[in-house]
Specification:
Blueprint (H helix, E strand, L loop, with lengths): L6 H18 L15 H5 L17 H39 L7 H5 L1 H5 L2 H10 L3 E4 L5 E4 L20 H27 L4 H13 L5
Antiparallel strand pairs: 1-2
């Protein structure tokens, strides 16, 4: 991202745009997905973009890795929201167990196995397919998560394979890792100190993730 638009500023902007779209009842784009012509100014201020590679599995190259990293930078909010919501009950149960053992919220990451355990590609692939979330890339260099109309299920790799490298799957995993490496302790601290209802906890988690500092 550019020096002005830090990661969390972009993430919060996209969340707000997604919430506004849902309130107005339009579109199938996921909050935090981003993309589209309205964000060309943001894209223009970043790295030069030429074109996206074909959406097929191929031998890993630096270009495919760069495309996956670019995808990750745009869809981090959407991925982290989907993954965090799927883990909310697990987070709460784990924190209760830690509290009973006399441990602290900061021990949650180690207790759960860290970001790597939470962002296994097999689990993310299953989650994205179950929710019908497809990575859509745009000609302006942005990317977004959408639920395609017509009931078509998106296809993702179950593991990252150098011989059959799928840059969109890689982008999903990178987005998850980037967020939870920075945010797991923050999430734990917020859930540790609150006794809100589940619906309020979901909102709290999304806002917490959107405010993580840039790297």
């Amino acid at each position: 991202s550019s020096s002005f638009w830090s990661w969390w500023q972009r993430c919060l902007l996209l969340l707000l745009m997604g919430l506004t779209r849902r309130q107005l009842g339009g579109g199938a784009e996921v909050a935090g997905g981003g993309g589209g012509g309205g964000l060309k100014a943001l894209v223009a201020s970043g790295h030069h973009f030429e074109e996206w590679p074909p959406d097929v599995a191929a031998e890993e190259t630096s270009e495919l890795v760069a495309a996956g990293d670019r995808v990750a930078s745009w869809i981090s909010c959407g991925v982290c929201e989907a993954r965090a919501m799927s883990l909310l009950d697990q987070f709460r149960r784990s924190l209760l167990e830690l509290r009973a053992r006399g441990d602290e919220a900061e021990d949650l990451g180690d207790f759960l196995g860290g970001a790597g355990a939470l962002c296994k590609m097999a689990d993310l692939s299953k989650l994205m397919q179950a929710q019908g979330l497809e990575v859509i890339v745009h000609t302006d260099g942005s990317a977004s998560l959408k639920r395609p109309r017509g009931g078509l299920q998106p296809a993702y790799s179950k593991r990252i394979d150098k011989k059959a490298f799928h840059y969109k799957s890689y982008g999903i995993q990178r987005a998850c890792l980037n967020v939870f490496r920075k945010g797991l302790d923050v999430i734990a601290a917020k859930l540790w100190e609150t006794k809100q209802e589940e619906s309020e906890l979901k909102t709290l988690m999304v806002v917490t993730l959107s405010r993580l500092p840039s790297t």
